[in-house]
Specification:
The complex is a heterodimer of chains A (789) and B (563). Chain A has six domains: 11-126, Arc Repressor Mutant, subunit A; 136-250, no CATH class; 270-495, no CATH class; 504-586, no CATH class; 597-644; 686-786, SH3 type barrels (Roll). Chain A is 47% helix and 12% strand. Chain A is built from 33 helices and 23 strands. In chain A, helix 1 (11-17) crosses helix 3 (41-48), helix 13 (189-199) packs across helix 15 (244-250) and helix 16 (273-300) packs across helix 18 (327-339). The two termini of chain A are 73 Å apart. With 563 residues, chain B is an alpha/beta fold. Chain B has four domains: 3-103, no CATH class; 108-173, no CATH class; 196-364, Rossmann fold; 371-557, P-loop containing nucleotide triphosphate hydrolases (Rossmann fold, 3-Layer(aba) Sandwich), CATH 3.40.50. Chain B has a seven-stranded parallel sheet. In chain B, helix 13 (317-324) links the parallel strand 16 and strand 17 (330-335). Chain B starts with a helix and ends in a 6-residue tail after the last helix. In chain B, 49% of the residues are buried. The chains are: A alpha+beta (789), B alpha/beta (563).
Chain lengths: 789, 563
């Protein structure tokens, strides 16, 4: 080892030598190191070197930095930047930048010229860094000595009696270009192309009978020749691996020729930034309106929460129509409302998705502010709306608002996508697949297919949300990403159309709002009419039903006329006025109410008399017509009371005929006699009485009888068969036992009980503490011990 | 096309007259300064759906976009127009959709092959494969000529085009038209000239080759036909709804063109003449003898260079089928209201041709070519007895009961009295009701059983002012030219038919000599199905900008209310 005297001797040493700023930076980049705060640097170093933490750090490296890691794994430890550079054939600047990134993250340590890789990193990367096989020396050592000797001989080298020496000799032969090249030229085209394929990685291939005995002379197939010369080395009976030296040579001595130093720039399209901002603002307005539409609908009819959480498919399917969007769009709107805290589970027995008080506060904000609430929640959320509508592992449709769509990866990837967009000049739209590629380069180890999907979803959602317009980031979003909501608000507010305070009423019973309507007016209009078309403007149609709905909601015809004439700039068309009056005239013409019984009489005076009687108030009477009274009490009671008041009423049945009231003895069909259930009604058998007596005594000695090996809360958890055996024996022997019992709140208690019966997974036993027979679920009994009386 | 490039050229228009909705409707604010320019710009590709007083609604449909392509407009123009006039950013998805829809047109072409005759040729092989796999298309085509071309049975040209439109791959028809047998026809513009819109309509039709012209009732559609004939200079077959209409066409043609009486034949129930210009009725064409349509042969009787369909919205199904075989001949459809209650508007477009000209009623009215009209809905209340009968009546009897209430008769009486001296038509559905009205008012009734000669006589008398009031059944719905009628009273109709309402209004829309406003009364029984139907019936006219004033019968009976 060539270690300079001044260099650190360990990661801890290195960290200790770092400045406070450097340490702070390390903790910022790897926040998992701070939870909990390590007691000293040594502990920090050892935590940084744990597998879990190192994986987390590696996952956040880009493709080039990871290939530097690969190089470090392959190079002897410690190594120098120069060696890394040569192995990667990469420019100095890029390599140095990557190296300092690694050091910053405490994945390497040492001085600038002697770089140590934290050991666990090599373990994480595994045996095939950069898709290359293990070193030849290591592989040869693993071969049977005789096999290796044949290879050494076949390579035309001096065979030694020592296995290790043979391995070194053969490995050195493959490790040198001068000797390797002629060997490769000799193997033939077929064999060479097989090697080429393995050289690209992964380096292992499947071969029948890999451990066969071959020599160069008797080689019949290309694979035979490769095995004979050690260019492929068997690792087990069916697989072979390409030694690292050979693979590297076939790659031209460079670790990863295809890995670029920087990410490929995604294909972009330049658009007019002004237009982009306007388009984004239009979408922003749209999404705010849609959230409002959704929650206004749910305010009146909150959809039930599925037992597993989330929104039922049936309720979800209604949303695209309601919101004039597709299913992914609808899922996003619902999720936005949820993550912004505008809708939540209702309290109460029947859980529903109900708007929250925050929603009312949100409604009072300006459109721009409302959008900022949504956009910010979206930037940060780990809920992945794109998963809604896909199928989960059990082939069930994933519902929106459910618990299954939380993915920690999502906010990270989303932020990267937004950063990629923000890194482009204003008005630049990015090609989605290019963006996928760019993000893949930045986080090759993170997420796999989900990562790629999240990139696509993010772009799609950004467009719906008005974060982007025509694929390019809007200026308002740039401000928001720069954490300047004030600027975002004013940019957006300038772009949004001013909400209107008027609409156009037309004689064909439609109303056109040529822009967004002030939200209180919009609400009233939505009550009064059906929406026919939405978008920049909205078209509404007044129908009998819609007017009736408004009347049902408590509006009067005058209210409606007043509203219409106040918001219309032109006189209200006469057909509309008539429509309102017509519906209002018929509204409430029929009344429906509930009554439990009625009293009718052709003699109106009698009914008046009843009403006037002092006892009448107790009958809950109301006069519907001169000859009819109704009561909130049932017929039998009313009959009874009227008789007591001195009237002579007769009951009437459903078809209006008088019921002859003659008391007949009533009978019912025979039914099985209810059997006593043990738990409900204890049968005081001798055993129980016996137990009761013992229980009286047990109260006194409860602390002393505890078996020696049993302490409260620690009754050993026996296997359930053991539990059953113990219980059965105690039942047969009539002994008193201790049981540990976990109740349905999860708390454990010990009871002294006398078993009475054991069946169907339930133990009925006399509980000494409560002095009654209780049922215990056997699966909740955590342990049994005998009490030696 | 690159939509982005178009986007960049967009000026900072933030106050255009047009609002583009995501459901593909276009809202045009008519009071806007640029409204007229915008209307002209979007007319080629967007269908006018509604034209009430403030905001007109247009709709983008695949058919409309394809017609625009056929007329030489490309997606870029359409997108550019939308972005130029739009007040708010146009939803991007819609622009993409427009481009994609328009790109579907013309992948398939109907051509005349020098050797094989009519063929379907494709520039996009997968599309050809796709359509040939369709069950609908298979029987209409013959063998493959080469990989991109397939034979088409000449008689199936129309059916094939229709099927391809349904599949979403409309064919560009380059096979051309037969010239037909030449016959000199000239407009005889003596003391009158074609109105600008009539000329535009005829030109639009001629350049498009075939198609439908939509003009309000009373706007002179016959002259558009005559102008088209003058362009065609060939023998012409004219299909009209009934004999009276046929005679009117004949008279008009004699008066307005160089044609003489001998050159015009009538092919109807009573006469079977085939002349260079032949006017046939739908009725005779669809008459069956021994289960066969024996008169359809009139289509083959001559080498017609032009076929004119009057009131094309009434085109009966057998003629539909026949028309599919006539694709090589130029076809002109004329109508006032292309609303078919059977929803077959699209068939009209594919078989006759796309809409070539369409003018909102109110626009023609503003130009003074049709009379302004006031529409009044008079609401009568059923008497107690009638209400009870109505309440307990069978569903299929209710409309009849409600619409022939006795109160209506009294109201009509009042109305006629009020407009005494003005030429008045009373129009209804139920013959007993009409007979009763005729008796009460002492005026003649024209109904289905009235002989043609008698009808003609009564109409003539009405035209000359000899009689001022006529009671007519639905025979007079169409094509009866009674220029002087200025008052119409509708007492009942064919349920909720929108086009019937429009046609009836059309009876009184001929401009009056003194520029008087026509008045259309619709007498409706309140709170009954009659009122529901009335609302539906009025929809088309309301969408054309006619607003109904509602009056209570009581006001009329006691001489108050409407001015």
């Amino acid at each position: 080892m060539t270690r300079t005297k001044s260099g650190p001797r360990s990661l801890a040493d290195d960290l200790r030598a770092r400045t406070d700023e450097e340490l702070a930076e390390l903790l910022r980049i790897r926040p998992d190191l701070v939870v909990p705060v390590p007691v000293d640097i040594a502990q920090l170093a050892s935590r940084a070197a744990t597998r879990a933490s190192a994986i987390r750090a590696l996952d956040r490296l880009d493709r080039f930095t990871l290939s530097v890691v690969d190089a470090l794994v392959m190079l002897p430890d410690p190594t120098s930047p120069k060696a890394v550079r040569e192995l990667l054939d990469a420019p100095k600047g890029a390599v140095n930048a990557a190296l300092s990134t690694l050091r910053e993250r405490a994945l390497t340590w040492g001085s600038p010229q002697t770089i140590h890789l934290v050991r666990v990193v090599a373990e994480i990367i595994g045996p095939h860094p950069a898709g290359l096989g293990p070193p030849a020396h290591q592989l040869f050592l693993g071969l049977p000595p005789a096999r290796l000797a044949t290879i050494v001989a076949d390579l035309g080298l001096a065979v030694s009696g020592d296995h290790a020496t043979n391995a070194e000799t053969a490995a050195a032969h493959l490790g040198s270009n001068e000797t390797l090249e002629p060997l490769l030229e000799d193997v033939g085209a077929d064999a060479l192309s097989a090697l080429q394929a393995l050289a690209e990685g992964p380096p292992t291939g499947r071969v029948e009978d890999a451990r066969r005995e071959v020599d160069r002379e008797g080689a019949r197939t290309p694979i035979d020749r490769l095995l004979a010369t050690g260019l492929l080395v068997p690792v087990d009976h069916t697989s072979v691996v390409l030694p690292r030296e050979v693979g590297l040579h076939l790659r031209g001595g460079v670790l990863n020729a295809s890995a670029g130093v920087t990410s490929m720039e995604p294909a972009t399209t330049a658009r007019d930034p002004g237009m982009v901002d306007r388009a984004a603002a239009a979408s922003a307005f749209d999404v705010v309106t849609k959230v409002e539409t959704l929650l206004d609908t749910w305010s009146l009819q909150p959809p039930p929460v599925l037992r597993a959480g989330g929104l039922a498919v049936r309720d979800f399917r209604r949303l695209p129509g309601l919101l004039d969007t597709d299913e992914p769009g609808a899922a996003l709107i619902a999720e936005l409302a949820y993550i912004s805290g505008l809708v939540a589970l209702s309290s109460g027995d029947d859980e529903t998705w109900t708007p929250t008080p925050e929603y009312d506060a949100w409604l009072r904000e300006s459109v721009a502010d409302r959008w900022i609430v949504l956009a910010r929640a979206w930037i940060e959320t780990s809920r992945t709306a794109g998963l809604v509508g896909t199928r989960d592992d059990r082939d069930k449709l994933v519902p929106p608002l459910g618990g299954e769509i939380d993915r920690p990866l999502t906010p990270e990837i989303r932020r990267i996508v937004l950063d990629v967009l923000a890194g482009l000049p204003p008005g630049t739209a990015v090609d989605p697949e290019g963006a996928v590629e760019a993000v893949r380069w930045r986080r090759p180890r993170r997420g796999g297919r989900l990562r790629d999907d999240v990139v696509r979803w993010t772009l799609r959602e950004a467009e719906i949300l008005g974060v982007t317009g025509r694929g390019a980031l809007g200026a308002q979003m740039r401000s928001l990403l720069d954490d300047d909501p004030e600027a975002a608000r004013s940019l957006l507010a300038d772009l949004l159309p001013e909400p209107l305070d008027h609409l156009l009423l037309q004689a064909d019973l439609t109303a056109v709002v040529p822009g967004p309507l002030q939200s209180d007016l919009a609400r009233e209009l939505n009550l009064l009419s059906e929406v026919e078309s939405r978008g920049g403007a909205s078209v509404h149609r007044f129908t009998e039903n819609s007017i009736r709905r408004a009347l049902d909601a408590g509006r009067t015809a005058d209210d409606i006329h007043g509203f219409l004439s106040s918001v219309s700039r032109t006189p209200v068309p006469q057909p509309l006025t008539y429509l309102v009056d017509d519906v209002a005239r018929r509204h409430g013409l029929l009344r429906v109410g509930a009554a439990s019984s009625f009293i009718r009489s052709d003699d109106q005076a009698v009914l008046t008399e009843i009403l006037a009687a002092p006892q009448a108030s107790a009958l809950g009477l109301r006069r519907l017509a001169p000859t009819v009274l109704i009561s909130t009490l049932d017929g039998v009671t009313v009959l009874e009371r009227l008789r007591r008041m001195g009237f002579a009423p007769t009951p009437e049945n459903a078809d209006g005929s008088v019921v002859i009231a003659r008391a007949e003895p009533k009978r019912t069909f025979g039914r099985p006699v209810p059997r006593p259930t043990l738990a409900d009604r204890p049968v005081p058998t001798a055993a129980v009485l016996n137990a009761a007596v013992r229980a009286l005594r047990a109260g006194d000695r409860s602390s002393s009888v505890r078996p020696a090996d049993v302490v409260p809360g620690n009754l050993g958890r026996s296997a359930s068969t053991q539990t059953l055996t113990d219980l059965r024996r105690a039942l047969e022997d009539g002994t008193t036992i201790w049981i540990g019992y976990v109740d349905h709140h999860g708390s454990t208690s010990e009871r002294v009980v006398d078993p009475v019966s054991l069946e169907g997974g339930w133990l009925a036993a006399f509980d000494h503490r409560s002095s009654e027979i209780r049922s215990f679920a056997v699966h909740r009994i955590s342990g049994v011990a005998t009490v030696d009386a | 096309m690159d939509l982005a490039a178009v986007g960049r050229t967009m000026a900072d228009v933030n106050d255009g007259p047009l609002i583009v909705q995501s459901d593909k409707t276009l809202l045009l604010e008519v009071d806007h300064d640029q409204a007229e320019a915008c209307r002209r710009a979007i007319a080629p590709f967007a269908e006018l759906e509604r034209a009430p007083e403030h905001v007109h609604t247009y709709r983008l449909t695949p058919l409309g976009l394809w017609n625009a392509r056929a007329a030489g407009h490309d997606a870029e123009q359409v997108v550019d127009t939308l972005m130029t006039y739009s007040r708010y950013p146009v939803p991007h998805a819609m622009l993409v959709d427009v481009a994609e829809t328009m790109a579907r047109y013309g992948r398939l072409r109907l051509e005349t092959h020098p050797v094989h005759g009519l063929v379907l040729h494709s520039s996009d092989r997968p599309v050809l494969e796709e359509v040939l796999r369709s069950k609908r298309v298979k029987p209409l085509v013959g063998n493959r000529v080469d990989e991109d071309t397939v034979l088409v049975h000449a008689s199936e040209r129309g059916n094939l085009k229709q099927a391809l439109v349904k599949l979403g791959w409309p064919a560009e028809d380059l096979a051309g038209y037969v010239d037909g047998e030449a016959h000199a026809i000239d407009l005889d513009e003596d003391g009158w000239t074609l109105r600008p819109y009539q000329r535009e309509a005829a030109e639009g039709f001629w350049h498009g080759g075939s198609g439908v012209v939509v003009l309000p009732c009373g706007a002179g559609k016959t002259l558009v036909g005559a102008a088209a004939m003058a362009r065609a200079q060939s023998t012409t077959l004219i299909l009209v709804t009934n004999t009276v209409a046929a005679r009117q066409w004949r008279d008009e043609l004699i008066k307005r063109t160089s044609l003489t009486e001998d050159e015009i034949g009538e092919y109807s129930g009573s006469k079977k003449e085939i002349r260079p210009v032949t006017i046939a009725t739908y009725q005779v064409m669809t008459t069956r003898r021994k289960g066969a349509y024996s008169h359809l042969e009139v289509f083959e009787a001559r080498d017609w260079g032009l076929v004119v369909y009057d009131e094309v919205h009434l085109l009966p199904a057998p003629i539909f089928r026949m028309t599919a075989n006539l694709q090589a001949r130029r076809r002109l459809g004329l109508t006032a209201t292309l609303v078919r209650e059977d929803g077959r508007e699209d068939d009209v477009f594919t078989l006759i041709g796309p809409k070539r000209y369409d003018a909102p009623w109110k626009e023609i009215e503003n130009q003074g070519y049709i009379a302004p009209a006031d529409c009044v809905e008079v609401r009568v209340t059923l008497s107690e007895g009638e209400r009870l009968t109505y309440a307990t009546a069978e569903a299929d009897e209710r409309y009849r009961l409600a619409s022939s209430t006795e109160v209506k008769t009294r109201v009509v009486e009042q109305l006629v009295k009020r407009h005494a001296g003005d030429p008045t038509l009373i129009i209804g559905q139920y013959i007993d009701q009409l007979d009763e009205l005729g008796e009460r008012l002492g005026v003649p009734v024209v109904k289905g059983e009235t002989p043609v000669r008698e009808r003609q006589r009564l109409f003539d008398a009405f035209r000359t002012g000899e009689i001022s009031t006529l009671v007519v059944s639905k025979v007079a719905n169409f094509s009866i030219d009674l220029p002087e009628a200025s008052i119409a009273v509708q007492v009942s109709g064919t349920f909720g038919s929108r086009q019937e309402e429009a046609q009836r209004l059309g009876r009184i829309l001929r401009p009056k000599a003194d520029g008087r406003t026509a008045r259309f009364y619709s007498v409706v029984a309140r709170d009954t199905i009659d009122q529901e139907y009335a609302q539906h019936r009025q929809r088309f006219l309301a969408e054309q900008g006619y607003s109904y004033h509602i009056a209570d019968a009581e006001d009329i009976l006691y001489g108050e209310g409407i001015p």
